[in-house]
């Protein structure tokens, strides 16, 4: 279990950060344009940590915390609309895609660390897919931005459905069914 983050740079450069409740870090992204690290902890809290850029600064600073997805109960059976199953950062490093157990995707603005009103709903994706493929695709397992094309993401669900979603125009471009 990782309860703290060590960051190593050039020879002799090392940073440490430990969360107050000794939370385990389960996913991490480096955001180079901000000189920051985005961490998701085991309780589904999401944190943005600023790495010092000047030799006079020695401490990592917590810029933001978003506790929207934190659950009070630890049994994992909570509200499926707030259980995070996947995270992805877009190429511009200004938008975080948050895949959920219910198949929806929330979007977080990295610059102000708030959730956007827009939600990519599984129901919207399923409207463009034939009936025989709509059988409970499950939770979001993976999200990847399409390389070289801004505004499109590939969404992989845990029950064989993959959708290419245009989140700027809010429509499906293509879908794939993987035989198991």
What's the helix and strand layout?
Blueprint: E1 4-8, E2 14-18, E3 25-31, E4 36-41, E5 46-50, E6 61-66, E7 84-89, E8 95-100, E9 105-109, E10 114-120, H1 122-126, E11 140-145, E12 152-157, E13 161-166, E14 171-177
Which terms summarize this structure?
180 residues, 3% helix, Thrombin, subunit H, 1 helix, 2 domains
Task: Write structural notes for this entry.
The longest helix has 5 residues, at 122-126. The strands form four sheets. This protein has a four-stranded antiparallel β-sheet, with no helix packed on it. By secondary structure, the chain is mainly β. It contains one helix and 14 strands; from the N terminus they run ββββββββββαββββ. Strand 13 (161-166) and strand 14 form a beta hairpin. Helices cover 3% and strands 46% of the residues. It folds into two domains: 1-70, no CATH class; 80-180, Beta Barrel (Thrombin, subunit H), CATH 2.40.10. The protein has one helix spanning 122-126, and strands at residues 4-8, 14-18, 25-31, 36-41, 46-50, 61-66, 84-89, 95-100, 105-109, 114-120, 140-145, 152-157, 161-166, 171-177. The model has no long low-confidence stretch (mean pLDDT 85). The chain is elongated and about 60 Å long.
């Amino acid at each position: 279990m990782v309860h703290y983050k060590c960051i190593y740079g050039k020879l002799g450069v090392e940073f440490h950060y430990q969360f107050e409740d000794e939370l385990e870090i389960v996913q991490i992204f480096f955001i180079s344009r901000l000189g920051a690290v985005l961490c998701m902890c085991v309780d589904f809290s999401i944190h943005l940590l600023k790495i010092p850029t000047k030799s006079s600064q020695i401490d990592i600073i917590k810029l933001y915390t978003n506790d929207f997805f934190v659950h009070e109960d630890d049994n994992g059976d909570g509200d499926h609309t707030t259980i995070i199953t996947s995270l992805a950062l877009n190429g511009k490093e200004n938008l975080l895609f948050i895949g959920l157990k219910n198949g929806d995707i929330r979007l977080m603005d990295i610059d102000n660390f708030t959730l956007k009103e827009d939600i990519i709903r599984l129901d919207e994706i399923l409207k463009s897919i034939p009936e025989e493929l709509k059988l409970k695709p499950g939770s979001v397992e993976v999200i990847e931005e399409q390389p070289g094309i801004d505004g499109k993401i590939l969404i992989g669900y845990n029950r064989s459905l993959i959708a290419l979603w245009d989140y700027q125009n809010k429509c499906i471009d293509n879908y794939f069914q993987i035989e198991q």
